[in-house]
Structure formats: structure tokens, C-alpha cells
Amino acid sequence: CHIPSALGVILRTTDKIVWANEFEPIELTCLIESISTNNPRIEWKKIKDGIPSYVYFQNKIAGDLENRAQLREPANILIFNTTRSDTAEYRCEVAAIDDQRDFDEILISLAVRVKPVVPRCSVPEAVTVGTSTELRCLENEGFPAPQYRWFHNNEELPQDPKNSPRFVNFSYTINPDTGSLKFRRVRKEDAGEYYCQAKNDAGHAQCPTQVMEVYDVDIIGIVLKCLGGVSVVIILMAFLCSIRRMCLQYKCHNENHYNWPTQNNGVEYADADEVNKIGKEMIHLFPSISIVLYIYIYI
TM spans, by residue (predicted)? Predict the structure, then answer.
């Protein structure tokens, strides 16, 4: 049943859901609309993850808000510099022993916005015309989660290029929630400087500019492949030369029917069984070059 205001304490607040920017002041209102008791007991509790703790108790600020807040008449609490850890629910409780309805409480939800920090951006240094590529942007500190925007040569890329006459021929897509910028087919005009901006209601931050170059031909890939091919050829030729020298030494040994001493010139010659054994082992290990090896040895 309804109790007349003169017989009980009644509380109200101007905002049950309060947003604040980090490091800025915010006031949580607990207004006493009706009370008969001259000196009511006022308490504030912070409820984080379902666990309550005092932030105003026995007429003084306590707990997480100590030295960072004050009580303002009639029962409001002013936080001087909010931090992200202040995001929680706060309960104002007023007890009036001389009132028929001697207790009332009100619950307020506080959410602290956090400005994004500098995002991490990933831009390829070089891509080939006609290929696909992706640029990435990520920021983990901002609250609420930021939206992402990409800039090319200091000009913002519209989220949908088809809606802009200047970018209608571009073949990219932007995901503002994940920070992804994808090119389906890279063009020469896509070369240039890129940076990403992460933004929410508390502010914005952007990563340093990075340059993406666009080539007609994959010059880097060709150079690396050539260097790799030259290395393989050099190693193979050295290997073949060593085997051929051993075999020539063995032929000379058989033609002269003479066992060359190892003491005269310091060279140690292998016998026929040893050469055959080495040849079979090499062919077993490298079957792909067996034909080349035999042709080269017996030229």
C-alpha cells in the first residue's frame, strides 16, 4: 500500500544509468524527497561482480573512493576523477529511525568511458598489382569498443566506396568493428601512406603512418627465387665435381694397375668397392639427380 511521504523516507535520483569519461568528475545523485528524521544514517556501497563494499560509511569516504570523492548534500556522492575501475553499480542507502518507513535505497549504474590508446596497425610494405591484400588495425583499451577508420594519403576512406564518386572505382571493404581494410584487386593508385584511427565517445587515437608500395611485377619474389636457384646450382656442381674426381682417380688407378702410395702426395685414394658404395648411397639419398650424376661422371 502507499505510505504518505510524511511517514517515511523516500529517495530518487536524476539518472539511474550514468556515463563518465575517465579522469573526469562525476556526481551520483541520491535525493531525499521526504524524511522526518533529523540526522538519518547515509551509506553508499559499490557493487562490483556481485560483491558489495563500502565507499561511504560512518560519515566518511572509504574503500575505492577514499581521497577521491566527497559527500554533497543531501546524500549525493561526487567522484573527483573517475577511473575505469569505478565502473560498477552504486547503492545509496538512507535509514531514518524516526520515520514509519525508516529505510529506502536506490541503485545507480556507473559506466566509465575509456579513451582508446594508439592502435596496432599492420600494412604490407609491397604488393603486386591485381592481387588481394589486407590491412589490419587493433586497439584493446578503449571502452566502449572503438570504431575504426582508415586514411589514405591523409584522406579518409569512405566505408562504402560506391557511395563516393571519388572512390567509386576502388575495390576495398572496411569493417569498422574489426579494423580490417581488404583490397580485392590492388591497383597502382592504391599505393601510398596509410594510417588507422580508433574512436569512441571518450576520444580517439591513431597509429603512425605506414607506406604501401604497389609493383607491376613481383620483383622481390623473383630476386629471392633466383638467389635460391643459384645457391642450389652451386651446391650441386660442387657435389658432382667431388664425385667425378673420386671416380677419375679410381679409373686411373685401374688403367695403370698400380696402387698409388698415400705417402707421396698426401692424397688418399678410394678403392672400387668404396666408390660403388658411395655412389649407391648418394643415388638412394638423391634419386631425383641420379641420371644427371651418372651422365656427368662418365662424360
Answer: 219-241
